[in-house]
Amino acid sequence: MSFAATVSETRARATTELSYLVFGHAHRRRSFTVSGRRYRYHAHRYNATWTNERTVELPIVISTMREHAGARVLEVGNVLAHYGIRGHEIVDKYEDAPGVVNADILAFTPDTDYQLIVSISTLEHIGFEEELRDPGKPARVLEHLTGLLAPEGMLLVTFPLGYNPALDAQVRAGSLPLGQTQYLRRISRDNRWKEVALSDLNDPRYGTPYPKANALAVARAHVSDSPR
After folding, report:
1. If you count Cβ atoms within 10 Å of the first and of the last residue's Cβ in the chain, which end, N or C, has fewer?
2. What is the rounded distance in angstroms from the CA atom of residue 64 to the CA atom of residue 120?
3. Is the per-residue pLDDT at 11 higher than 90?
4. How many CA atoms lie within 13 Å of 171's alpha carbon, on the beta-carbon side?
């Protein structure tokens, strides 16, 4: 790395650290509510979560994982390890990292099932940012994952609206096997979120008016939601 690049990277890290100390700490003292349950916003240096949708995705998923302590857990898309959450199985088609199985999730057929499967902002990329576009693939993936659940198991999936138009259309048509789904909308520049009805999300856009996701789906499906 050149000297100029090293200086630039050092400055960027210093800026992120200062922003974390000033804004991240303040943000994590605030809270949001989903289905009557209150969560603290998440603030982490990696990906500056206090500035984007990770601030709500992570506390919801991490809380659910704690409720399933000791269970066999699968994550689709390698996200949680970047925030220090490890000890579970991970499948990610593209990211090369220790402990990560690189495979298309539809080709992943483990010998046993899972009590919990989680996926954070991954579904919107499936069948959309692959070599061959396949708008029907997210639905097949959801059905496949539900089929990997143990009795009484849970599938928890979060994904932004306004990113993948085909996926958004399927959400509005009710054609995805999502189970119980809540929707969140970003309501402020300082990254506060509010639970809303799907009908209140009028053509959400990714990246506007705020950076990255401006609307989010949080879906929970159980074995009983889909035939095995």
Report:
1. N
2. 13
3. no
4. 28
State both tokens at 26: 């303040």
Residues 6+ apart with CB under 8 A from 185: 193, 194, 196, 200, 201, 204, 214, 215, 216
Q: Which residues pair with 114 in a beta bridge?
A: 149
Report the C-alpha gap between 74 and 114 in whole angstroms. 7
| Residue 109: band (very low, low, confident or very high) from pLDDT cuts 50, 70, 90 | very high
Q: How many domains is the chain partitioned into structurally?
A: 1
Tell me if 18 is assigned to some domain: no
Domain range spanning residue 121? 52-225
Q: Is 3 inside a domain boundary?
A: no
Token output for 161: 């609206």
Strands annotated E in the chain:
31-34, 37-40, 73-76, 89-91, 100-101, 114-120, 149-160, 180-186, 193-196, 215-222
How many residues make up the chain in this entry?
Answer: 228
CATH (domain of 126):
3.40.50.150
pLDDT reported for residue 225: 52
User: Would residue 43 count as lying in a domain?
Assistant: no
**According to the model, what pLDDT value does residue 26 have?**
72
Tens digit of each residue's pLDDT (9 = 90 or more) over 49-106 = 999 999 999 999 999 999 999 999 999 999 999 999 999 999 999 999 999 999 999 9
How far is it, in rounded angstroms, from Cα 24 to Cα 47?
Answer: 12
**CB proximity list for 6: less than 8 A, separation 6 or greater:** none
